[in-house]
């Protein structure tokens, strides 16, 4: 598990910080508003906000008020998707962050719909239908990913069981087998196999 991911999990491990993030998905909040919503003192809220801001999850801006001092409000800074991985052979996590959108056919279709000069009722209906199509496609891809990951776990478990059996019988052979497949295996998995069965020989 990478250092950045470990820190992020530590940050998200606190219930109050998770509640703050949930509130900020609705709209930007001032400290006093968060304090009232959470039933937590402003000093404690400020400390949680500092930790979230240092982690790059939220950002703050100053808003000028006609009467009174300028006020700082907080909002979500970036979107991300975090997955926890727990298998018979692995415990870890993966983080996905938004990237620059690739100019795919779906992207071009979205741009055309957004730039459309159709009457607003027709335009909104077309956008809603397209969004529904995207949602269905994403669900299909997630299900396909889940099925592939199950097969991947099956193969990884079998490889590790074979490596374990060989290492118990003949340590020289297990080194030779690993050498033959090291460059073929996915890099992260090869590293894990090496740590488990090779480095302590």
Automatic annotation (TrEMBL):
CDD domains according to UniProt: HTH_ARSR
Any coiled-coil ranges, and where?
Answer: 124-161
GO molecular function terms attached to this record: DNA binding; DNA-binding transcription factor activity
Concerning Gene3D superfamilies, the annotation shows: 6.10.250.680, Winged helix-like DNA-binding domain superfamily/Winged helix DNA-binding domain
InterPro entries membership: ArsR-like_HTH (IPR011991), HTH_ArsR_DNA-bd_dom (IPR001845), HTH_MetalResp_TranReg (IPR051081), WH-like_DNA-bd_sf (IPR036388), WH_DNA-bd_sf (IPR036390)
Give the domain of life: Archaea
Q: Where is the HTH arsR-type domain?
A: 1-91
What's in the keyword line of the UniProt record?
Answer: Coiled coil, DNA-binding, Transcription, Transcription regulation
Q: What is the designated name of this protein?
A: ArsR family transcriptional regulator
Which organism is the protein's source? Pyrococcus horikoshii
